[in-house]
Every structure is written in structure tokens, then in C-alpha cells.
Amino acid sequence: MSIDVFNLVEGAFWIGLGAWVLLTRRMVRGRRQVALAVLLMAFGVSDFVEMRTGAWWTPWWLLVWKIVCVGVFIHYFIHLERRRP
Asked: How confident is the model over 8-31, as a mean pLDDT?
């Protein structure tokens, strides 16, 4: 499998996961649910941009985009773990 095909599949996965989060109420609700869904979809779009640029670390703003997404993912999952009874 070429890297472009992998990025295409990965991007579709993240966008699909974002749509699933948006349409279900399993993890979070309200604004947090919408924010997480948009973030997942944005992370998926970054894979399509990566296909165009050829690398996840160039241009610099793509690297920042991915770091911000992963950082916010970590924040959300820590928040969800703390809410568990």
C-alpha cells in the first residue's frame, strides 16, 4: 500500500469517526461533543493535506496543525477519564 493510499484511508477514518461522534451521544455531550467531532474531522483533513505536501512535518504549519490536534485529543481523553466514576 502506498503512503498516499494510507493517508487517504486514514483521513477517511478520522472524518468518519468525527461524524460518528457528532451523531451519537456515547462519549460527550453538547459543545464538547461538537468540538471533538470537528477536531477529529480536521485531523482527517490534515491527512489529505499531507498527501499533497508529501510529509507530515512540512510545511511547518501542517506539523503545528497535527500537534494541536493530538494535544487536544489527549486533553479530551484525560477529561473523560477523570469523569469516570
From this structure: 88
* CA 10 – CA 5 distance, rounded (Å): 8
Return d(Cα 32, Cα 38) in angstroms, integer.
10
Whole-structure pTM value: 0.86
Quote the cell numbers at residue 57: 512535518
Listed residue (48, 31, 38) closest to 17, CA to CA: 38
Q: Measured between alpha carbons, how far is 49 from 58 in angstroms, rounded to an integer? A: 10
Helix axes 31-53, 60-83, angle to 10 degrees: 150
